[in-house]
């Protein structure tokens, strides 16, 4: 079986407050969801009809069983989810202060199972054959995940759609310089890079969208996607010189944490369909908007009919 998408990276059990605008120490009830950026992208693509799988790790605990069951429920293949007996499945809490303040508290100690995946534990034949392969910056933050990510990227055929989500989380790194060095090492192996302006600044030293896109192109990236918050998103192709800026999709934000992952799943869908850059980014923005208007991340990912109807209703 050839997968449309294989992602590699974080997984977690997300515990979100059911009281919006309340500090975490005063929250009384939480809702449990599947989470983690790479995992959410796989779910988002599966909801859009794509055959998806995720390479990640969980503990030998009840939350690990929940992750596997949730993945299968969303139609994501869990065969590459490794069980790491000596580490717990990560848990993440957040606070919800709409429209733009959603602090995250990661419990990934002493180390997350998804960072324990080594090069010899990745099915390189499946990675090589996948139509799209997606990795995250977090996977580069520790060994042996760092080496496994690089080995997987090096296995990809030239020109295959290979995506790096810059995904910079300061608490996972010793310094910004360390993150920049590891990202620089893998940029030559990816064809698409996705990140916000802060993530671009860390990765390539540029936060202005046009300058960040040029720096990513200079590093070998064909398609640079730079998220600009309320200014929308810039898509830039190196080979053709095409530049597209798409405005954000309007939404009354409930929880913005899953929006980027929904964007990623829809981006993958558009790239697989061979859609033009503008329509691909318009659909991706709509997907991010759809999920930002709901509490959950993975559970809120729309199917294609829902997404198309949502996008059309807002035109």
Question: How is this structure best described in words?
Answer:
This protein has helices at residues 37-47, 62-73, 124-129, 145-155, 176-186, 197-204, 209-218, 259-273, 277-292, 304-313; strands spanning 5-8, 12-17, 30-35, 52-59, 76-77, 81-84, 91-94, 104-107, 132-136, 161-165, 192-196, 223-227, 233-237, 243-246. The protein is α/β, with parallel strands linked by helices. It has a single domain (5-313), classed as UDP-N-acetylmuramoyl-L-alanine:D-glutamate ligase. Helix 2 links the parallel strand 4 and strand 5. Helix 6 packs across helix 7, helix 8 packs antiparallel against helix 9 (277-292) and helix 9 (277-292) crosses helix 10 (304-313). It starts with a strand and ends with a helix.
How are the secondary structure elements laid out?
Blueprint: E1 5-8, E2 12-17, E3 30-35, H1 37-47, E4 52-59, H2 62-73, E5 76-77, E6 81-84, E7 91-94, E8 104-107, H3 124-129, E9 132-136, H4 145-155, E10 161-165, H5 176-186, E11 192-196, H6 197-204, H7 209-218, E12 223-227, E13 233-237, E14 243-246, H8 259-273, H9 277-292, H10 304-313
Parallel strand pairs: 1-4, 1-9, 2-7, 4-5, 4-6, 9-10, 10-11, 11-12
Antiparallel strand pairs: 2-3, 7-8, 12-13, 13-14
Helix pairs in contact: 1-8, 6-7, 8-9, 9-10
Number of helices: 10
Tell me, briefly, the overall form. Answer: globular
Q: How would you name the oligomeric state of the polypeptide chains in this document?
A: single chain
Distance between the termini: 38 Å
CATH topology: UDP-N-acetylmuramoyl-L-alanine:D-glutamate ligase
Structural category is alpha/beta
Number of strands: 14
CATH superfamily: Ribokinase
